[in-house]
Amino acid sequence: MRIVLLGAPGSGKGTQSQRLMQREHIPQISTGDLLRAAVARGSELGRKAKEAMDGGRLVDDALVLGMIRERLREPDARSGFILDGFPRNLAQAQALERLLKTLRQPLDAVVQLEVDYTELVRRISGRRTCADCGRVFNVSTSPAELSASEPCPSSGAPHRLIQRPDDNEATVAERLRVYEEKTRPLIEFYRARGLLRVINAEGGLEEVTERLEQALHAAPQPAPAVRRAVRRRPARRPGTRRAVKPVSGGKRKRAARVSRAVAAVRVTRAAKRAPKRRRAGAAKRSRARR
Fold first, then answer.
1. Are 215 and 197 in contact (CB under 8 A)?
2. Is 41 a catalytic residue?
3. Which residues pair with 84 in a beta bridge?
4. How many helices (H) and strands (E) does the chain have?
5. Alpha helices in 7-89 (DSSP H)
6. Alpha carbon distance 33, 14 (integer Å)
7. Does the active-site annotation cover 127?
8. Catalytic residue selected from 88, 160, 182, 193
């Protein structure tokens, strides 16, 4: 199953991706993780990405797509994948669509996780991330997992939980504004392709996971029919004349040729009728003299 998860920051995409990965046995592909791994390996794409990040620039979409292409060619992604954090705008969605078509791995579903913005603020401010493995926890939605005895798979020690600098209420409003402007249009993009599923992502963790599973295994939704707009002429007010559009030179020439052709036909018909008219006139005068 090939899936894209959409949702505002704090909607639970990362948490649900991890749970879905374990249930479906398919990898979660996070562009952030791909960038960090490429930089750590020192690959060509990683070096280019590092140059952009060190220069304070955004990583080019072509580089990100190149990393996704490499990742999808790995054996564990053959049976499916979960894209988390990409695409973020229409240009990326269109580029991803072309890439997956080339790889013959089209998407099966796109799930939009809907959460009220007040709840998003609470979630984001309570989010904690392990500094070693990147696993996401939350002090408000899953406090029991914070004290879990399971060690960090990267360090073998207890998880070192930190709060990301942008996970605070001061920056949430701006992040949500950017999401509404850039990412929200993707909903209509994927709805037009019949791929979109929308679920309520509020509630308990297991409850949301169950909704996600049901949406993924539901019958695909047909793409909406596209209706062409009917152009109607504006109503003309009584006593007014309809504006005459200016005629182009080409149209004037064609009209002149048609007029000349019509005139020639009329002259020919008149010439044919002339002898008959003369004979009729002579006969009429002869009868009058009698």
1. yes
2. no
3. 5, 30
4. 10, 8
5. 13-24, 31-41, 44-54, 61-72
6. 12
7. yes
8. 88
**Sequence spans of domains, the chain:** 250-290
Q: Is residue 290 annotated as a catalytic residue, yes or no?
A: no
> Residues 216-265: pLDDT tens digits?
887 655 555 544 444 555 555 555 555 555 555 655 666 666 566 656 65
Which of 41, 73, 78, 164 is catalytic? The answer is 164
2, 19, 122, 127: the active-site residue: 127
In the set 13, 128, 135, 211, the catalytic residue is: 13
Tell me the pLDDT tens digit for each residue of 188-217: 999 999 999 999 998 888 899 999 999 988
Distance CA 190, CA 194 (A): 6
Calpha distance 219→226 (Å, rounded): 21
Token pair of 134 as six digits: 């990147």
The answer to whether 278 is a known catalytic residue is no
By DSSP bridging, strand 28-30 and strand 81-84 are parallel
Q: Is 285 a catalytic residue?
A: no
